[in-house]
Amino acid sequence: MSGQKFQYDESGGTFFYFLLSFLVLLLIPGTYYLWPRRPKQDPGQLSKECGCEGCKKKKIILQMNEPWKETKALFTKFLIILGWVILLLLAYKVSQFDYEMANFDPFEILGVPPGSPQSEVKKAYRKLSLILHPDKETGNEKAFMKLTKAYQALTDDEAKKNWEKYGNPDGPGAMSFGIALPSWIVEKENSVWVLGLYALVFMVALPTVVGMWWYKSIRYSGDQVLLDTTQMYYYFFHKTPSMALRRVIMILAASFEFYKKHNPEIIERHSDNEEVPSLIKQLSNLGEKNKERPLCHLYSIKARALLHAHLLRIPLNPETLEKDRQYIVKKCPYFIQEMVTCVNQLIMLAYARRIQRLPSIETIENCMKLSPMIVQGLWEFKNPLLQLPHITEDNLKYFLAKKRQIKSLQQFAQLKGDERRQILRNLSDSQYNDVMKVLGNMPYIEFKVRSEVIDDENPTVYTAGAIVTVTVSLTRKDMRTLFGDNTVKEQTILDDSKAAAGDPSEEAAEEESQTVKKPAWLRQRKGPKKSNKKNTNKKSAPAKSGQQSQPGNVLQHQQQQQTNTPNSRKKEDGKESSNKDPARDSVKERLSDVSDSEVDSDRSDDEDSSHIKKDSAVDDDDTEWEKFQQRISKREKVLEGRSNLSHEVHSPLFPDVKQEYWWVYICDRKSHTLLTTPAHVTSLARFEEVQLRFTAPRWPGLYTFTVCLRSDSYIGFDQAQDIKLDVKEAPEIPTEHPQWDISDEETAEDVDAADDHSEFTTDEDISDNE
Question: What are the entry keywords (predicted)?
Fold first, then answer.
């Protein structure tokens, strides 16, 4: 290692290699991702765009939101092009270094052909030395030294051997390790500047950037919502399990993103002291006298007043309150999605008995209903036809004539062209064309539901405690496909008119929240009628063994399945009598004999049907293979990531581009409970499939659940379909598996826990209660 050298780059050659590789690593991905591209536009996009005044104003607002968009794009292009120019120059300079550092060739240096005699070599050396000698005017010391080495390599025997062996007439050179940085970095004259640069980058800039990132990350959730806002949502939704729509608006307006102390983007003006009180006088049921914090804070009251003005479509001062309205409304869809998540988690915590108050299904649905209201700037009790351009309250009387009674956009789309034009006869041709453009681009969703028990021998048979998979198929079409088509099947629209008509005030909502009762399937199951007193113990014992099923919780489903075994029922029958009952053993023996006979009968049935299974084995294999392929494709789609592009929403009062999103969930309308986590569908361009899973009730019977589809962008497009599950009793588990036996102590704990829990409400229970 004595011959090795380790030094900075004196000539600067290797430093250019470093710069070249660094620029390549930056420019290639930077050009691909950062080069400004214009979005692909449909050639007929202009013909599809609405020309109403609201859409024109929205275009101006979107352009004002990005005033430097074109300048930033030009600057980005300039930087990328400049980087590529520098890269080409560096590549040319490095290529020159490579040429100079090529293999030593004395014939080429002397300008003689290979194998020339020494006389010609000497003659060429004398001729070139007269030109390159340092004492001459045209001399070049570096080139002369190279010429001398070439002459020695062809004339001196030892130098010739070294050249042939090592490629250098001087023999093997010392190994050299260099740093790809110029030597002026370590020079004494530049030490102050170098240290200053290091201190600026590593002691000031880097800690500042990391600190800013960390401070922001600990304040915001994954959806870029302040954690303080999320905690506030949890508090109020837990405090008021059954929350009215107006109170949801109050909670939304109290988000800390609208508070200047938490968000420096908020602008507080002196004119607010006059404009906000005058706006409040125009609004009713605002609840400005509420004393709860932060609902009583000035920022919350201002945001609430702006949201009410937005829903009532009240014009505001374009220089002050209108700008505040646009900022608040633009943020609302993200906060509403966070509200839905918070209420859903509270419901799941109530199922798990972590909290006592169970939020009702109306609370989470009110949060969902608020989203299309904000996007369209319209109260839910208003006519959905007002979402069309140029349609005002005065035009509704033509829709609600005695002969027509057009109340939905779907009904209006199914009319013939002459009838639609007759209804809108007071509009000009251009205005009528705008109405038809917007109506034709609105969604028509084909909503199909299929339920099954996956990975089961008979997927259409639902047993107690089984995991039910509901596959929801959504096919999105344009409403223009319904123009003049009266044969389209009428969709089952969610009816929220009753809840909207009541519209309880804040005080009424609070009183209602205090009297919220547990749903029927969470209360203790009723015993049999008086006429069956003798069989009361036998029927109530298995009832106590069942615990509440949490939707989608497979682990708890397995635990519940263990508690529903024949052994557990045998031991619970024994628990109802004294522990020292002498008939206890005989009862166990009888029950075990019955279970054994049932198992034997099941085996005989399996043997009888074995030949049928063999005949259909090929078809079953094909079906299983198709299902397997579908699961693989779905997993790959999930791994690719969730897209946020579907179809642009016509929303002239919403100050940003909005895409169509949907919520899909399953609930029990009879007990007002949520069964599955709402799936947020954000990529419904044409077709989308959503799978929802929940645990079947623990009690055999006929149950009716509702699969709901809600839009977060349009009013009047919500749909619902009922699914009926005929739940059978779970098959008994063979007793020859001792690891599934449950001790008497565990069964006793399950019986005590079952006193506070029961199962879903069957149709028979509802009829009995009525």
Answer: Chaperone, Endoplasmic reticulum, Membrane, Protein transport, Transmembrane, Transmembrane helix, Transport
